[in-house]
Amino acid sequence: MAYSTTTELTAYATARGITLTGDLDVLLTKASDYIESKDYKGDAVSSSAKWPRYGVYVDGFLLNRDIVPQGIKNAEMQTACDIDNGLDPLANIERATKAESLGPMSVTYMDNASLTTRLTKVNAMLKPYLFGSMGKLVRG
Fold first, then answer.
1. Residue 70 — φ and ψ, nearest 5°?
2. What percentage of the chain's residues is helix, strand, coil (to nearest 5)?
3. How far apart are CA 116 and CA 96, in angstroms?
4. For 20-58, what is each residue's pLDDT tens digit?
5. Alpha helices, DSSP H only, in the chain?
6. How far apart are CA 36 and CA 30, in angstroms?
7. Cis before 128? omega within 30
8. I want to staple 80 with a disulfide (CB 3.0 to 4.6 A). Which of 27, 36, 47, 85 is the partner?
9. In whole angstroms, what is the distance from residue 118 CA to residue 124 CA?
10. Distance between first and last Cα of the chain
């Protein structure tokens, strides 16, 4: 279940000069899997999806519990674009290798090599909604 439509994904990609080559429904499904893997502020309205939610404040404002925020949809669509470009955040990733040899078998891994793909742009889009992230403090 994706939050965005294929029409929205096409418009999002086109506005950013991105040409998608994969099946749009599959891209959105995979992107939705990533979005659904996150822990968000507040509580889900239903058990079938993480959004919509209630009790979520972003920049000091309480979000409407009946909608999926545009920021979540944008993150989903950016994730779909990234997946189409070969950057699947849920794919199994092998540790980066600096050197290999065959006899007598030796492998050297990259120093401080990450074991995960980081989607910096997507994570920045999701940050205001994620559990544990601090929004702006509003004093009355």
1. -60, -35
2. 35, 15, 50
3. 10
4. 999 999 999 999 999 999 999 999 999 999 999 999 999
5. 6-15, 24-36, 70-84, 120-126
6. 10
7. no
8. 27
9. 11
10. 39
